[in-house]
Amino acid sequence: MQKICPQGHRSGAVHTLVIPPPKRLPTGTTAETPAAPEEYVESFRRRLAEDGKSPKTIESYAGDVAGFLAHLSDVGEGFTGQIKRSHITGFRNHLLERGYEAATVNKKVNSLASFNRHLVATGLMEETVVDPRRDRVRVASGSERQVEVYTEGQIERLLHFVRGGGVSPRDRAIVMALLYTGVRVSELCGIRLRNLDLLTGSLTVTGKGGKVREVPLRPEVTDAALVKAVTALVNQLHNQLAHHYPSYRKFFSDVDGNTALAFWEEYPSPHLLSDTLVEDLAVLLRSHSHNACSTNKAKKILALVEKDGETKREYQEARDFIVRSIVRDVRFKKKEIGEVEKELKRTVDLLGYRLDTMPGIDTVTACALVSQIGDISRFSSADKLARFAGIAPIKFSSAGKGKDQKSKQGNRELHGIFYFLAIQQVQVSKGSGIPRNPVFLDYYQRKIREGKTKVQALVCVMRRLVNIIYGMMKHKTAYVMPTLPEQKAV
């Protein structure tokens, strides 16, 4: 620092002039010898990394700058560390002539603006010449490329297919997450089970630039994630047991039942049963099955193990550890499911609704109904609720002639809940032939006898369900199963 008295100022006036530090130039750069284009790009990379940019952002920005410098070289203008206005306009026009979209061109302009600021910070330039507001390609209002989205009918068909039995839990969870959370595909690929908080119903997502945000989940997404996690673990258990116990499917009806899990944890492989007596095994089974499994079950298991023969393999201790680890994980996930259902049940109880007293409505379905309907007092009648759910028909007429047709309006999610609830009401057990709800089954069959199709009869069931749900929520009453009148013999 030097103190000088500039010429022209009054005597005795002292001013301070700060000598700036030497300019930071890329490696090998001098006033007479510019650096190679690669060194400018590498210097820009380091600047972006110091600013905490993500690797993908750095690659994108550096690639745009490298393309800009290559263009200058192609047109015979070597880059000396100075960006000119003619460079920007020429590069932008070059991109447009080659058919680049306006969004791509504007993204490259933003990258060059960041590069320009970097050159100013290193001292190679004194001012910014790239102005995104002026250099971006303007798109006339109304001429933007329209984003294609699914129609309500397409979403309804997609949900109907996904909720069916032909879609794996993993694929169902993926579709539900993309549909209800709005996350990017790249963000979805980075989601792990540890990012899911089932108690609070939220998902932690890491987005662009490493930014973390919490996304609230609908009950459908949480349920799908739980099913996916448990199903994946059970599939792993199947894979391990198939090597150890070739006849393991004959041991228990459910491989992930409480008694089965206790058995797999105690005896993950057959060689551990070599010195086990029938009575000892029977005690273990009875203690975890509430005395449902008898000594005959223990004899059957030991006979199947003996029939399978020797299945001990290399690294058997490690394989046993894997089976026990999977069993512990399955138990933890099932316990987590129980905790989530308890929390949901507590929430429903606080509201005073007793929807779960109706056959086919569990805690999750009750919460879904409450979340979609909201405050029931905003609907003055069940007809208004039916219209809101898109269940009430719409009359299409012209010149006094027309007919009622199925509505495609309303809350399609609530419509789907009533649709699947109606299917459950008319279901009949395959084994015993006992209907789940005899009243609704009789009503459904009566509508078919009147000449309605099965789909139309199901819509009638949905409409009656709306009346019942509306009354239960309006008056906070429980469901009482009506009795069918006895038919007199002729």
Please render the helix and strand layout as text.
Blueprint: E1 2-4, E2 15-17, H1 37-50, H2 55-74, H3 85-97, H4 102-122, H5 132-135, H6 152-162, H7 169-181, H8 185-189, E3 196-197, E4 202-206, E5 212-216, H9 219-244, H10 258-266, H11 278-289, H12 295-308, H13 316-351, H14 363-373, H15 382-388, E6 394-398, E7 401-405, H16 412-425, H17 438-449, H18 454-475
Antiparallel strand pairs: 1-2, 3-4, 4-5, 6-7
Key attributes of the depicted protein:
490 residues, mainly alpha, DNA polymerase, domain 1, hpI Integrase, Chain A, 4 domains, 3-stranded antiparallel β-sheet, two-stranded antiparallel ribbon, 18 helices, 54% helix, 6% strand
Q: Report the portion of residues in β strands.
A: 5-15%
DSSP helix fraction: 40-55%
Instruction: Write the element-wise H/E pattern from the N-terminal end onward.
Output: EEHHHHHHHHEEEHHHHHHHEEHHH
Shape: flat
Please give the count of helices. Answer: 18
The largest sheet, given as strand count, sense and whether it forms a barrel, is: 3 strands, antiparallel
Overall radius of gyration: 35 Å
Unreliably modeled segments: 1-24
Write a short abstract of this structure:
The protein is mainly alpha-helical. Helix content is 54%, strand content 6%. Strand 3 (196-197) and strand 4 (202-206) form a beta hairpin.
Describe this structure in words.
The strands form 3 sheets. Strands 3-4-5 form a 3-stranded antiparallel beta sheet, with no helix packed on it. A two-stranded antiparallel sheet has the order 1-2. The model is unreliable at 1-24 (pLDDT under 50). A hairpin with a 4-residue loop joins strand 3 and strand 4. It contains 18 helices and 7 strands. The chain has 4 domains: 37-135, Orthogonal Bundle (DNA polymerase, domain 1), CATH 1.10.150; 152-225, hpI Integrase, Chain A; 232-344, no CATH class; 352-394 and 407-475, no CATH class. By secondary structure, it is mainly α. It is flat.
